UniProtKB/TrEMBL annotation:
It comes from the Bacteria. This is WYL domain-containing protein. Signal peptide: none annotated. Residues 123-190 form the WYL domain. It comes from Bacteroides caecimuris.
Length: 303
């Protein structure tokens, strides 16, 4: 990694830390944070003098002023601009993803990305590194549907996949390939002293080709689906298809009708409800009934 690129990365890491909810960051804490984040990127070791020199460059390049408060013994960002805040958080993530891989790597062998920006997360660089060098990882995982219950996991990471601006880890857990929401991962640890043989025969894209999003359940059958929408909704669905299998069979002033072929999962039903104002399910009948029940229950709750 070049010195100039390394310096920009380091500055973005500093900004990221100082934008946390914590108002004042002690010198030792900031130094340790920057050191760990740059180690993850195989960068040159840094000390507090290097970080302090970066403060001046941050102000010159980004217009962000970093000050030290003697009373609270910590660094803080002075008069932070919320728009700049959002822009540089996203920029930081892009640097993380690009530079966690060296220039000779093929991005698609580690990351399965969609065509929109993901949510920010600090886990991504460490997970990419673990995947790249075949190191097991351990973490505490939050099960949202179990009222936030947390369980410890040790898995063999294989891919990262983005879906609807969220990142998911595809990893073997007790010899089963599972999907983990990166937002639900806490206390990530890489086992640098251990390695495993990464299964390169997995066709990761094929795993999800018959599903909507990242919910892949082979026990749910693949079905032919036919849906009808208004012409207005049709214009949106032409620009952003529901699924790669989408085919247009009617497109006129009164109706936009499509067919799809995929598994009818909860994620897919939720996607249909998101544009339900003009939706008519033609087939299968059980999907039509499922949507009708959702409408009925919602009506009962709101009357």
């Amino acid at each position: 990694m070049g010195k100039k690129l390394e310096g920009i990365q380091r500055m973005l890491v500093i900004i990221n830390k100082l934008k946390e909810r914590q108002r004042y960051v002690p010198r030792e804490e900031l130094e340790e944070y920057v050191r760990l984040r740059m180690e993850e990127r195989d960068a040159t070791p840094v000390d507090i003098r290097t970080i302090q020199r970066d403060f001046k460059n941050i102000e010159d390049l980004f217009g962000i002023c970093i000050r030290f408060d003697k009373k609270w013994s910590g660094y803080y960002i002075n008069e932070e601009d919320s728009l700049i805040n959002e822009q540089y958080e996203r920029l930081l993530l892009n640097f993380d993803l690009l530079n966690a891989l060296d220039k000779t790597s093929n991005l698609h062998t580690y990351v399965l990305a969609e065509h929109h920006r993901p949510s920010d997360t600090e886990c991504l660089p460490a997970l990419i590194k673990a995947i790249k060098f075949s190191h097991p990882v351990a973490f505490d995982y939050i099960y949202v549907r179990e009222e936030g219950r947390m369980r410890k996991k040790k898995v063999l990471p294989h891919y990262l996949k983005e879906d609807q601006q969220r990142w998911y880890l595809l990893a073997y857990d007790n010899n089963m390939l599972k999907t983990f929401n990166v937002d639900c991962i806490r206390n990530l640890r890489i086992y640098y002293e251990e390695t495993f043989k990464r299964d390169m025969d997995i066709d990761a894209n094929d795993l999800f080709k018959d599903s909507y999003g990242i919910w892949n359940q082979p026990d749910i059958p693949i079905e032919d689906i036919e849906l009808s929408y208004s012409a207005l909704d049709g214009r949106f669905l032409k620009s952003v298809p529901l699924h790669h299998s989408q085919k247009i069979i009617a497109d006129n002033e009164t109706e936009f009708r499509i067919t799809l072929r995929l598994r009818i999962t909860n994620d897919f039903v939720m996607a249909l409800l998101a544009r339900s104002s003009s939706l008519t399910v033609i087939k299968p009948l059980h999907l039509r009934e499922r949507i009708r029940k959702v409408y009925e229950e919602a009506l009962q709750r709101n009357t």
